[in-house]
Automatic annotation (TrEMBL):
GO cellular component: vacuolar membrane
Keyword list, A-Z: Membrane, Transmembrane, Transmembrane helix
Topology versus the membrane: Multi-pass membrane protein
Region feature (Disordered): 1-63
Protein name as annotated: Proton-coupled amino acid transporter 1-like
Domain Amino acid transporter transmembrane: 69-478
Cellular location(s): Membrane
Chief location of this protein within or outside the cell: membrane
């Protein structure tokens, strides 16, 4: 068993108070951070044996494994929750950007590759835990220790930068999600308020509606700002978990009603293109990766299982369900609304109180989820800021940093008030690195000196190249579209759903 003074990688530990492994996905509470994980260990009497960074401190590597783990069913629920959010609702537009034939096929391919990369990360973490006698490694730890144990001296000397890269992309991704939530909340609330005077109880009427004068969506974003600032002041994870449960229920009910609507009276798809223009395909890639980027939650969930040997089976089974959910909603949504499909399928729902309730319910879930997504970058950035000031100023600095970060995400949303493009931009710029680029390269770094088949090496290189290419082209296309003159959104969605 390794002791503290013999740990070859001990000099690489980052002195942060929180791990960086929380998911990008919207509803799963970040109770898997090391700050919270250590609290659970302390509650069971295991107050020694693990560092906040996830490494061993020289005692029994399994000390923190004594916490009563979650069941396979709870693990499955966490996976399903972590993949249900704004990205899911944007997939119908993503299929439009790829085509009715190419879209579902590409969605299936990217889904399989993303899940394969999740499996790679779990395998690499297990290998390093066994090799270094660590009880648990988060994403950043796995990359750092993988580089440290590689045969290349250059990689060993720059191992800490591997963790820095993961931390950077995680912060970028999480704050990007928070910006997306501002745009989503503003777009949905704007549509509900502007149509409120003509909203009826008849969800199947062909009557054309007259909207009230339009207010810029950015004003709605500003109206959410003070409420979200107050929300992120809640620092207790257990309180956030209660709100998370309410968010999960509201979003699940909303999805059931949305499915019930889009499966009825699907129009003839003969006028929909099987293959879309090539210039819109990069936007499909970014939006899809935004939806699938839940790789950060995989290792924390696996670490909390009672029977960890079953995790890969649950991972592949659960993600198969997610892929089927994504493909079905994306295809049915595009078939239902055709060329009129918007950045979120909720914006295409009919103008009646039932579907306005769906928009408000889902928006409530996203509103609560903001605090959960915000938790990770806050717990990475705030400890560093607080450590630089006298103790009496700790609370002031903590709340100030939280307020500043929320204002940053609001400012980014105001600068990019188009939900479809911000989804694609975040997915291409940051999610691709975490989901597709880094895991295959990590596998090569860890296993190359131990013997890898040429097929595995070539496959890993191709996956990373695909992720990198998609990231560059997707980011460029999203920025190019943002530079074009803005087109005011139309409200044909309010009646197009009824025209058969």
């Amino acid at each position: 068993m390794a002791t503290p003074n013999k740990d070859p990688t001990g000099n690489l530990e980052l002195k942060t108070k929180a791990t960086v492994t929380f998911s990008s996905n919207p509803v799963s509470p970040p109770d898997s951070t090391w700050k919270f994980h250590n609290k659970e260990c302390n509650n069971t009497g295991s107050k020694e044996g693990s560092t906040p960074e996830g490494g061993s401190s020289g005692s029994d590597p399994s000390s923190c494994q004594k916490v009563e783990g979650i069941t396979w069913f709870q693990t499955l629920i966490h996976l399903l929750k972590g993949n249900t959010g704004t990205g899911l609702l944007g997939l119908p537009l993503a299929v439009k950007n790829a085509g009715l034939l190419i879209g579902p096929l590409s969605l299936l391919l990217i889904g399989v590759v993303a899940v394969h990369c999740m499996g790679i990360l779990v395998k690499c973490a297990h290998h390093l835990c066994h090799k270094l006698q660590k009880p648990f490694l988060d994403y950043g730890d796995a990359v750092m220790y993988g580089l440290q144990t590689s045969p290349s001296s250059w990689l060993q000397n720059h191992a800490l930068w591997g963790r820095h890269v993961v931390v950077f992309f995680l912060i970028l991704t999480q704050l990007g999600f928070c910006s997306v939530y501002f745009v989503f909340l503003a777009d949905n609330l704007k549509q509900v308020i502007e149509a409120v005077n003509t909203t009826t109880t008849n969800c199947y009427s062909n009557e054309t509606v007259t909207l009230t004068p339009s207010i810029d969506s950015r004003l709605y974003m500003l109206s959410f700002l003070p409420f979200l600032v107050l929300l992120v002041f809640i620092r207790n994870l257990r309180i956030l978990s209660v709100f998370s449960m309410l968010a999960n229920i509201s979003m699940f009910v909303s999805l059931v009603v949305i499915y019930q609507h889009i499966v009825q009276s699907v129009p003839d798809p003969k006028n929909l293109p099987l293959v879309a223009e090539w210039k819109t395909y990069p936007l499909f890639f970014g939006t899809t990766l935004f939806a699938f980027e839940s790789i950060g939650v995989v290792l924390p969930i696996e670490n909390k299982m009672k029977k960890k040997d079953h995790f890969l089976v649950i991972l592949y089974g659960g993600m198969t369900m997610i892929i089927l959910l994504y493909i079905s909603l994306a295809c049915l949504g595009y078939l239902k609304f055709g060329a009129a499909i918007q950045a979120s399928i909720t914006l295409n729902l009919p103008n009646c109180w039932l579907f306005h309730s769906v928009k408000l319910l889902y928006s409530f879930g996203i509103f609560i989820t903001y605090a959960l997504q915000f938790y990770v970058p806050a717990e990475i950035i705030i400890p560093s800021a607080v450590s630089r000031v006298p103790k009496k100023w700790n609370l002031v600095v903590d709340l100030s940093v939280r307020t500043g970060l929320v204002c940053v995400t609001c400012a980014l949303a105001i600068l990019i008030p188009r939900l479809d493009l911000v989804l694609a931009l975040v997915g291409s710029m940051s999610s691709s690195a975490l989901a597709m680029i880094i895991p295959p390269l990590l596998e090569i770094v860890i296993y190359y000196s131990e013997g890898m088949s040429p097929i595995t090496i070539v496959t890993d290189i191709l996956i990373s190249f695909l992720g990198f290419s998609g990231s560059v082209v997707g980011t460029y296309q999203a920025l190019y579209e943002l530079a074009q003159p803005s087109v005011s959104p139309t409200f044909s969605n309010l009646t197009s759903a009824f025209v058969q």
